[in-house]
Design a protein that fits this description.
With 209 residues, the chain is mostly helical. It has helices at 5-8, 10-26, 33-61, 67-97, 103-133, 141-147, 198-206. The chain has a domain at 5-138. The longest helix has 31 residues, at 67-97.
């Protein structure tokens, strides 16, 4: 069964949050653009919230969970219902009063919309705890890997220089080469070693073709 709930929840989260942002901006703008944008984002956000609640209730029936997950799940479910109902009330409120709504009434409406977006943030926190902290609805990947005969640390990585396996002894390949052809043991000036012997110089001239 395809899990639709994790994919659908992103739409009401984004749309209602953007609607709240536009509502706050519209308080300081005389242009009606932000009010219109607020309404349409809220409308589609309400539709998304209804779909998220519906798919969440379906997946709840098939979710394998313990008592600890169940406590978070109850909060997640009722907070989702609260977000859906509050957003529906705000949408209906604005639809009925959009031609008569005053500044104070609209400011209160925008405040409630901001509160609903805060509730959405809390909803995402609860969902994240269930999945990432408690593992609700997550397949036991490590158990599956063990059944397939793969143990942690048994694989090897290749580096950019040609590749070697972890744990390989590379000390034999590190041969120490002499840094230079002269000796510094007694602190002699190395400039004296660079003098050209006259005989050698003549011999080099005769070697020219």
């Amino acid at each position: 069964m395809v899990k639709l709930h994790p994919a659908i929840v992103h739409f009401p989260v984004a749309l209602i949050s953007i609607a709240a942002l536009f509502a706050v901006i519209s308080l300081f703008r005389k242009n009606d653009f932000f009010k219109v944008a607020t309404f349409w984002n809220l409308l589609f956000g309400v539709i998304g919230a209804m779909a998220a609640v519906f798919t969440g209730l379906i997946e709840e029936q098939n979710l394998l969970h313990n008592e600890e997950v169940h406590k978070i799940l109850v909060k997640h479910k009722f907070n989702g219902f609260a977000i859906m109902i509050l957003s529906q009330i705000l949408l209906t409120w604005y639809w009925v009063r959009k031609n008569k709504i005053g500044k104070k009434e609209y400011a209160l409406w925008a405040l409630l919309l901001v509160i609903s977006s805060v509730m959405i943030i809390y909803q995402g926190f609860l969902g994240g705890r269930m999945v990432f902290d408690k593992g609700a609805g997550v397949k036991p990947v490590e158990l599956k890997m063990q059944k397939e005969g793969e143990s942690p640390g048994s694989h090897s990585h290749s580096d950019a220089s040609g590749g070697h396996e972890h744990g390989q002894d590379t000390s034999s390949s590190k041969k120490i080469q002499p840094a230079s052809g002269h000796d510094h043991k007694n602190g002699h000036d190395t400039a004296s070693s660079k003098k050209t012997v006259p005989g050698k110089k003549k011999e080099l001239k005769e070697m020219k073709y």
